[in-house]
């Protein structure tokens, strides 16, 4: 793998930019899993999912099964969803409420604080050997009602990992009122980084996203790079209609779109208070699973308003257009025609992303 320096007319050197083999070499993904994904924070949910004692939900973070549970002592914790006896996945359900967790293999049970309750196949002196066989904890933090986990026990605290991002996020005062409303996944044939690149610029918006450009004021569109994240957005064009509702009377008057290192995007669309998360999960070096999670004030799709349904339709259209683009891009990555791209002055957020990848991989 190699990198190239991009220069402008005044010969000022930009940061390094990735060559196309970084998108096609399976060995690169192996390094990314170890040096990037295993050491960074991952969004897993919202506090509304575990408000009551005994409530839990399960997640998967880079192929690691995780369970997030509010104990009977009201403390929120995260554990690997794995029985310490014989490595069986402990809880199969996506969510629920329990006082005791039980492994379906040998019947071991665990309290909501992760401590072993009973090990039925151990008796007498043997029982003393497993009394410390607790569930293994996962690093977890909650900020602005969002629950994050990190597979690295020694990782920098979440509050110190993204500059002033959470201060900026706190301005969305409706976040604590939201609930996880809907989650969907989509598999597409492209490297995970290609979608991030696409998200971090809007030069393609006029060509590929007519509905997006028709709604937001592109003359006022801004992309700002920050510490380990970037922000972009604009206001809604005056007197624009979104669905059947006048946006000038809605809760949010503009679109705000965040990228957090390495693979998380948070979007806030015009209309009633809302948030959607987008996660790019690599399956292999040329296949990615996109995970889309919607947060509204209602906990199910059949309860949300028509305006919120229109918002989802709008977002899905933009995302489908992007996936078509990055799948075509992946074909070009494999070609011998070129070994790298060219970056304009408006693509600084991509350059920042590339710098961070290359630094993490020590390239």
From TrEMBL:
Cofactor: Fe cation
Pfam families per record: Rieske (PF00355), Ring_hydroxyl_A (PF00848)
InterPro entries: Rieske_2Fe-2S, Rieske_2Fe-2S_sf, Ring_hydroxy_dOase_asu_C_dom, Rng_hydr_dOase-A
Annotated EC: 1.14.13.-
UniProt KW Acetylation keyword: no
Keywords per UniProt: 2Fe-2S, Dioxygenase, Iron, Iron-sulfur, Metal-binding, Oxidoreductase
GO molecular function term, any single one: dioxygenase activity
Domain spans labelled Rieske: 41-149
PROSITE patterns membership: RIESKE
CDD domains registered for this protein in UniProt: Rieske_RO_Alpha_N
PANTHER family assigned to the protein according to its UniProt record, in alphabetical order: CHOLINE MONOOXYGENASE, CHLOROPLASTIC
Protein name per UniProt: Aromatic ring-hydroxylating dioxygenase subunit alpha
Organism: Sporosarcina koreensis
